[in-house]
Design a protein that fits this description.
Elements lengths: L2 H23 L1 H4 L7 E4 L2 E6 L8 E8 L10 E7 L2 E2 L34 E6 L6 E7 L6 E8 L6 E6 L6 E7 L5 E9 L5 E9 L2 E3 L7 E3 L3 E6 L11 E9 L3 E8 L4 E4 L9 E6 L3 E9 L6 E9 L2 E3 L6 E4 L4 E7 L7 E7 L7 E8 L6 E6 L8 E6 L4 E7 L4 E7 L5 E3 L1 E7 L3 E5 L5 E4 L2 E10 L3 E10 L2 E8 L6 E4 L12
Parallel strand pairs: 5-15
Antiparallel strand pairs: 1-38, 2-7, 3-6, 3-8, 4-7, 8-9, 10-16, 11-15, 11-17, 12-13, 12-14, 12-16, 17-18, 19-25, 20-24, 20-26, 21-22, 21-23, 21-25, 26-27, 28-35, 29-33, 29-36, 30-32, 30-35, 31-34, 36-37
């Protein structure tokens, strides 16, 4: 045969092989509907924890937990280690150049090493030099792996309790609720888990729209490094309510905003759920003395939202705050006061007419006078299959469950304790349109801290958050973490072999 014929045969054979692979890989080709995909445990999970504090008197604890997951691998490991590089002179100042100076430190010892799924493992550190952490888990440790970072600061800017769930890397984040006003010291923390540098833009949107500044453009985050960028170095404008947009030009990062106040404490502001027409912000504390809603829409159209509170008795409309008009490209904020009035509550935002994607968060204050403390509740995704919350204690933990669209049955399991105790499970019914602060189960014979897993059993979607509270020096210190899906399971299309495709 001549060369042309051989090339034609080789090309035809290669095309047939590619077509056969597509037939094996595609649900449509195999005759299986996309909804018939099997849900299997994930095999690898990565988490990033920001550097906890700049205070010399900060005490930080880390709690790692992987729920027991049916079908997970029989082996594997998880490690949480310091990022290789940290800024030598504290947070990066973009006005002095792009990126930050690293020390080149190498992480030798893990902060903690989990030993088995189903039992939390804790570690701790103190002071202002604690670095950001990069974690990986594979095999049996990967499905639903959760790490909570909790910091106590006794005095100074941001004093109180600060907590954040360590999150995975991504390429875009929205943070409504940040600020550069007098008395605020807010940082956006960027952590790069990969072997190549990430290039990031940090954009600010205030009450009048985008705040133009070249200082937030093309910021470089070195490989296996973390940078904390002081927001007030990006602009001369001092505003109480800003939306921070982190977008990654190349690579990927983990991102979180640390919002600190001279007078009313502070906390971590986690990224809000992706822009959507309807949003749920679950778990406003019963004794909240002030609640502030911050919203933003990036599209071309303004958004008009109906504001409702999911109370223990059903959906109600706050008097005087029935709706919110959000102008395109501008951050809008409204004070809701003590909207919960001593009862459990969650905020539900829905479009009054046209659906326009919005991001939103709540700034929540407890206490009065000079004994105030602050936390944040970003809009969050539903629990889905399962959500996991680590670092709970027998006292000071409140679990809030919200079912805005239909009555739901929810199973909540308390894990074994980090130092002893046996798991306990309870089932709850959450009526449509309500929020319940449930009496969360506590492990029998608890010693140490424990984890909660939340699993909807039937009914409509469920949204959840967990509040940790501890009174320190008369200050009602607290922190709130929302509980979206822990991403322990992944959909894998069902396939079947069809070699007849090679004969067609």
């Amino acid at each position: 045969m001549n060369r042309t014929t051989l090339s034609l045969i080789a090309g035809t054979t290669a095309l047939a092989a590619v077509t056969a692979f597509a037939a094996l890989d595609s649900p449509a080709a195999s005759g299986a509907a996309p909804g018939a995909a099997a849900r299997l445990p994930v095999e690898r999970t990565g988490l990033l924890c920001p550097a906890p504090s700049l205070s010399d008197i900060a005490d930080t604890s880390y709690t790692s937990f992987t729920p027991v997951t049916k079908g997970a691998a029989s082996d594997g490991k998880a490690r949480l280690q310091a990022a290789d590089e940290q800024s030598a002179d504290g947070p990066a100042d973009p006005s002095k150049g792009k990126g930050g100076k690293g020390t080149g430190k190498t992480a030798d010892q893990p902060v903690l090493t989990p030993k088995a799924p189903g039992t939390p493992v804790t570690g701790d550190t103190s002071g202002a030099e604690a670095p950001a952490l990069i974690g990986t888990a594979d095999g049996r440790f990967a499905p639903g792996w959760t790490v909570q970072e909790t910091t106590e600061v006794a005095a100074g800017t941001g004093r109180g309790l600060q907590g954040v769930n360590c999150t995975g890397a991504d390429t875009e984040f929205w943070f409504p609720g940040a600020g550069t006003a007098a008395g605020r010291t807010d940082y956006v923390h960027l952590t790069n888990p990969d072997d190549s540098a990430a290039v990031v833009d940090v954009e600010l949107y205030g009450k009048d729209g985008a705040i133009k500044s070249s200082l937030g453009e093309n910021l470089t985050v070195k490989p296996h490094a973390s940078e904390a960028i002081l927001l007030s170095t990006l602009t001369d404008q001092r505003q109480s309510d800003l939306t921070v947009h982190v977008s990654v030009r190349s690579g990927r990062v983990g991102a979180a905003v640390q919002a600190l106040d001279d007078k009313v404490g502070g906390d971590w502001l986690a990224a809000a759920a992706d822009p959507a027409g309807s949003l749920v912000l679950p778990g406003i504390p019963k004794d909240a003395t002030d609640v502030r809603l911050i919203a933003f829409t990036h599209g071309d159209d303004d958004a008009d939202l109906k504001i409702r509170l999911a109370s223990p008795d059903g959906l109600i409309t706050p008097a005087g705050n029935e709706t919110l008009h959000v102008k395109s490209g501008m951050t809008t904020a409204v004070d809701l006061g003590d909207v919960t009035r001593g009862e459990a509550g969650s905020l539900v935002l829905t479009p009054t007419d046209q659906t326009v994607p919005v991001v939103a968060a709540l700034q929540v204050v407890r206490g009065k006078g000079d004994k105030k403390e602050t936390a944040f509740i970003p809009a969050t995704a539903a629990v889905g299959t399962r959500a996991t919350s680590a670092d709970n204690s027998a006292k000071g933990t409140t679990l809030a469950l919200t079912a805005p669209d239909g009555t739901a049955t929810v199973k909540v399991t308390a894990s074994a304790g980090s130092e002893g105790g046996s798991p306990v499970t309870k089932t709850y019914t959450v009526r449509s349109g309500t929020t319940q602060d449930v009496d969360a189960p506590v492990p029998a014979g608890l010693k140490g801290t424990y984890a909660l897993t939340v699993e909807p059993v039937s009914g409509g979607p469920v949204y959840a958050s967990r509040t940790l509270a501890a009174t320190e020096g008369g200050v009602p210190a607290f922190t709130i973490q929302t509980l979206p899906n822990d991403r322990g399971m992944v959909a894998v299309p069902r396939t079947e072999e069809d070699l007849s495709i090679l004969q067609k």
